[in-house]
Amino acid sequence: MAALSSPESGAHSSRVYFESPGGPGEEPDEGPVRRQGKVTVKYDRKELRKRLNLEEWILGQLVLLYDCQEEEIPELEIDVDELLDMETDDERGARVKELLVDCYKPTEVFVKDLLDKIRGMQKLSTPQKK
After folding, report:
1. CB atoms within 10 A of CB 66
2. Residue 78 C-alpha from the chain's centroid
3. Whether residue 10 is found in the same domain as residue 68
4. Which intervals of the chain are annotated as region Disordered (predicted)?
5. Is the torsion defined by CA of 64, 69, 74, 80 positive or negative?
6. 54 and 20 in one domain?
C-alpha cells in the first residue's frame, strides 16, 4: 500500500490517500482503488520544531567538530531524550563527551551550548493509544 498525494491537495492538507493493489475480482483496467485516510498529529508542533532545529544545529556542529562532510561523520547518536532523562548537567555533559571521545577538536563549547539548548525542552515520548 503506498501513500499518494491527491492532485487537489495543498501543502497543508490533512488528508492522505492510499492506493491498494488490485484484489481478486477487480478488473485490471479499473485502476487502483483509492481510500481516504486522515493524518492526526499527537505531538506539540512547537516542541517538534524545537527538536528539529536542535537536531539540525547538532548536525552542523558535528560537521565542524569532525571537519568533514555530513556523510563522513562517525557513527554516533546523541539521544536528546536520553540526555533529558539524566538528573544533572554534569551527567549530561559527561555522556556527550563520552560520545565524542574520538573527536580531535575541543568539544567543551559544543557540550556547553548543547546543554544550554536542551534546558527546558520536553522529552518526546511515543503517545499512548487511547
Report:
1. 18
2. 12
3. no
4. 1-38
5. positive
6. no
- Average pLDDT over the chain reads 78
What pLDDT shows up at residue 101?
92
pTM greater than 0.85 (yes/no): no
Cell of residue 117, nine digits: 539548548
For residues 34 and 65, membership in a common domain is answered with no
- Residue 5 phi, psi dihedral angles, 5° rounding: -90, 140
C-alpha grid cell for residue 1? 500500500
Cα gap 49→41, rounded to integer Å: 13
Q: Which residue has the cell 518526546?
A: 124
**57 plus 112 within the same structural domain:** yes
Q: Are 15 and 39 in contact (CB under 8 A)?
A: yes
Domain interval for residue 31: 2-38
Is residue 128 in some structural domain?
Answer: no
What's the domain count of the chain?
Answer: 2
Could you tell me the pLDDT band of residue 47, with boundaries at 50, 70 and 90?
Answer: confident
Among 79, 113, 84, 81, which Cα is nearest to 98's?
Answer: 79
